[in-house]
Design brief:
Layout lengths: L1 H8 L1 H30 L3 H13 L3 H11 L3 H39 L13 H55 L5 H33 L7 E4 H11 L1 H6 L3 E5 L5 E4 L1 H17 L6 E9 L2 E9 L4 H4 L23 H11 L3 E7 L2 E9 L1
Parallel strand pairs: 2-4
Antiparallel strand pairs: 1-3, 4-5, 5-7, 6-7
Helix pairs in contact: 2-5, 3-4, 5-6, 6-7, 8-10, 10-12
């Protein structure tokens, strides 16, 4: 079907080529026929003699003598004339092809040269013009997305570097106090040690964000697929989040078939669900419930994470972009580098699936769709 459509797209060009070839053949036949009539006519000698007389200014007798000398070579002259006509007509035919190729080459130069010049081709190759314009639009969109991602990354690195200074200064300050006052009361020393440890953990988290950015820029996602017990995987992930959930009085409930086996990369799919659950915990209020549901429908399985909280409609389209954070403030105290959902999207896409978000009625739902 695709090949048929492509042939139909260039039907105008095909018809024009056929018409041009037919016209050139007709012209060639007419010229050859006229030459044949002239050669077979008894008056051709008089014509040639008159031509020699008036153009080369020779006498009538010398002109006839020259004609009779040339007469045995007339068949070869006719062949040469026909060949010359063929070359001229072929040149006219292929010059049109050269025009098309030059136009396409010019369109490619616009793409390669990153020019704002409009791509305009002949009507006969309009399908090629549409394809070149589509490629140009795609390249422009990708370049724009890359610029936005690079700007977000630079801002994130700048914010992280700025935020690292605060816990680092605190760690150095409290360690200096502990070093300068060895006879400090135990209660005060324990207080300073706890504060220093808390700031060190914060510093470690910020350094991890730097490593996350580096891993994202240089990693190559290769899949190592195997059979996965999805129920066990999600149960294990919820157990790992128990300390974080308990700290905020949150709960996560799982509704899934206990014998659901899927085929995929267990480490990377675990990272997908981990990133989504982490996002749900971070953007849900305290004492809230996060519901995780799994079901199978029409050759695909679905995993949804539903949590209280709303995401503005204008941000739903950008939430899976690299380095995008719902909290656009300078501080990185809440949220990460804005890579969790972007990485999840790429992993799901590499499995042939889709991930999408919906927010309405005071709840936000992230759904992962993957082939069984």
């Amino acid at each position: 079907m695709r090949n048929y459509r492509q042939k139909s797209d260039y039907k105008i060009l095909e018809r024009k080529i056929y018409a041009r070839i037919a016209l050139l053949i007709v012209i060639a036949l007419v010229i050859v026929f006229l030459l044949y009539l002239m050669a077979s006519s008894s008056r051709i000698g008089d014509t040639i003699v008159s031509f020699l007389q008036y153009n080369f200014l020779i006498s009538y007798e010398n002109a006839w003598q020259l004609y009779w000398t040339m007469r045995p070579s007339l068949p070869f002259v006719m062949i040469a004339a026909v060949a010359l006509i063929f070359i001229i007509l072929s040149r006219l035919l292929f010059s049109q092809f050269a025009k098309y190729f030059n136009e396409i080459s010019g369109g490619l130069d616009v793409l390669v040269g990153d020019s704002n010049t409009e791509i305009n081709l002949s009507t006969e190759i309009a399908p090629m013009e549409r394809k070149l314009k589509a490629i140009k639009q795609t390249l422009e969109d990708r370049e724009r997305e890359a610029r936005v991602a690079e700007q977000r990354k630079n801002e994130m690195v700048m914010y992280l570097a700025h935020d690292i200074k605060t816990p680092l200064t605190s760690v150095l300050g409290y360690l200096s106090l502990l070093d300068e006052a060895p006879d400090m009361p135990p209660e005060q020393k324990a207080k300073y040690v706890n504060i220093t440890l808390d700031k060190a953990h914060r510093l470690e988290k910020l350094v991890d964000e730097f490593f996350e950015i580096t891993r994202y820029n240089f990693q190559t996602e290769t899949l190592s697929k195997e059979s996965i017990d999805l129920y066990y995987m999600l149960t294990q992930i919820i157990d790992e989040f128990f300390p974080l959930l308990s700290e905020r009085g949150q709960q996560a409930f799982l509704q899934a078939p206990e014998e659901l086996v899927v085929f995929g990369d267990s480490d990377k799919l675990a990272r997908v669900f981990n990133n989504i659950l982490k996002n749900a915990v971070a953007h849900s209020p305290d004492e809230s419930v996060i519901n995780i549901a799994v079901w199978v429908s029409e050759g695909s399985f679905y995993v949804s994470f539903r949590n209280p909280g709303s995401i503005p409609a204008d941000k739903l389209t950008s939430i899976f972009d690299r380095f995008y954070r719902l909290d656009s403030s300078r501080s990185t105290d809440s949220g990460g580098a804005g890579l969790g959902l972007a990485i999840a999207k790429e992993i799901v896409a590499s499995h042939g699936g889709h991930i999408y978000a919906d927010s309405q009625g005071g709840f936000t739902t992230f759904t992962v769709e993957l082939p069984v």
